[in-house]
Amino acid sequence: MDALSYRGVRKNFGDVEAVKPLDLDIPAGRIFGLLGPNGAGKTTLIRMTLGIILPDEGSISVYGEPKSRKHENYFGYLPEDRGLYPKMKVWELLVFFGQLRGLSAKEAKKRALAGLDRLGLAEWAENKVEELSKGMQQKIQLLTALIHKPKVAILDEPFSGLDPVNMDLFKEVIKETLEQGTNIVLSTHQMEQVEQMCERIALINKGQIVLSGEVGEIRSRYGSKEIRVEYSGDAPAADTVDGLVQKARLNGHEARYTLKEGVPLRDLLAAILQAGGDVVRFGEEQASMHDIFVTVVTGNGEVGHEG
Amino acid sequence: MRVDATNVWVVARREFMDRVRRKLFLVTTLIMPIIFGGLMVLPAVLSVMHTGKPMQVLVVDKTGWAGPAMVRALPASPAEADSDGKSHAEAAKGFVFKLAPAGAAMTTIRREIGDGKVDGALVLEGDEKSGLKGTYYGQNLSNPQLFQVLDGRLNTVLLEHRLAKLGLAPGVAQQLKGRVDLETVKVEKGGKTRKGSIMDFIMPFVLAMIIYMMIIMYGVAIMNGVLEEKNSKVVEVIVSAVRPFELMLGKIVGIASVGLLQYGIWITLGAFVYFANPMNFQAHLEGPPIRLTQLVVLVVYFLLGFVFYSSLYAAIGACCTTQQETQQLQMPVTFGLVIPFVLMMPTIMTPNASWVVALSLFPITSPITMLLRVGSIDVPLWQLGTSLGLLAAGTVGIAWVAGKIFRVGILMTGKRPSIPEILRWVREK
After folding, report:
1. N or C: which end of chain B has fewer CB within 10 A?
2. pTM for this entry
3. B255: burial class by Cβ within 10 Å (0-12, 13-18, 19+)?
4. Best mutation target, A38, A46, A52, to test chain B (most B CBs within 10 A)
């Protein structure tokens, strides 16, 4: 079942084509990465999904039904530009957002306090929002998006500005939310987070989807067939693997080999070990999402490697 | 456009609580009556306190008979004591009249006035036939009390002189003069009458003032609130949960409630102070100073007029990113309020003139003009109905247009859109 599916969705602002006719399916029960450079049309797509603006053409379905007002509270949203009412008390603010999302005041308060507790802010409930640090405010903002246990939570750059401890906390909370039945759409420029958290992605550039699919599949598709080997000492001379590889690039403790067609991986390893290579790491190199992103967005056919 | 009442209610309640709890609300609610009360009481207090020495006025007599009479300490004449004899008699004490030495040159006297040695000079001319002519020379010609005193005294002097000519004793003049009382009786529909009071004069102003001040104060508050939400980016999350139109309505309802509460407090306070004076209380034993119909009309016009104007203000707030930018766009809106306000006096004096009727029907000006009319006369029902119908239709139309502008504008950042651009937003689906 697809949590969200878009068919021929298009949006123009004046003469600018913010989103060109676009088809996309976001399957339920996963963390979906919505990627793209600044100004690619991500925010427009998100706003159309949330019903903040209407598409010029095309349709959006939520769990197989055409999206309508009834799905309003299916969504939770953490926008990239964050904002809260600075003068409100923390718990009152959360109750306000909960009520806007259809919760009763009582239920909203219960969940607000539970959420604050989970994020380590229980003793701040009575404080005004403006008295909180930036990181704390970001936690509050995350709670406003999740308080009504939405079917789909759209989180735009949820990790920006977080310290490593809070980043891990956010990831935990996001995973817990997923386990409780909320689909997560994650929009971020932090490609490591995409590699760690997302199962599927769609990459948008200039208003259209230029790449989509399973993260693992994309990475191996874009990965070259290079084998990266690390040695504790120097790499054995290149001629020891002659006949097995097309190309060998040696660089101190590290070597990259491109296997000839049909040569199994273990033959290469055996040859290296036989030559006395002190291998500490051996594996097929996968392209990083970072490289794939850069390659696709800049229109560069070759996918580079780290290092 | 379907509107979810719960969303409007939740937004309105937040807006209401947020504002009522601010210190600013408490301060303005308490300070405003003090300022207004002070403005009303202060002039009376100041005029009672005789600060400084009395004014010195030289009397230059060219008639040969009027001068000595003028200088004699006269009791307050009825002309001096037109409404409240006591205070004018008090005021007369603030002036000392002195006869100029015979043959004193006018040039010398003028120099003395110029140098501030005397405050002024009164030159008396004329004969019995033509009457008495006084010319006042002075540095300060803007003291109305002085002229009231001069006028009264000159009249008395002439009168007594003529009576003396007829062989009557000077004291007779006082006996001849009597106090004139003018009483007003208000006639209402069906010939019902009640004694007029100061409230009949004040009420139209008060009604129009209330609505004018509220729209300006709270309309601008809505505009600034929208601007704030836009700049603090909180609006993005909110419009993901509620329709922009609901947000706009919620803000209007919430802030209007704050306004009603505040004015409710002020009006209650004002009524207490007014009725604390037993004279005022007596005057209204026959009927309250404001009739129920007036009150209903006030509330209905306030509500419609407020929604009308505050949707415009909300739309302006949505189009701008800074306070300065709002100034320009606010101008035409404020105009609609200021025009009927400026025309207040002629409106009250001729509440049935055709241009006044027209203004009281036209939705932009009707909230204020109609209230002025309702305060002064019984407005024909058809006019009230037409005016309300037009205002209601206009309000719905304006709210709809403003909602469209609001929806697009609230998510815009960067430079203010041009008027044609804004009009395009309205046409957009």
Report:
1. C
2. 0.75
3. buried
4. A52
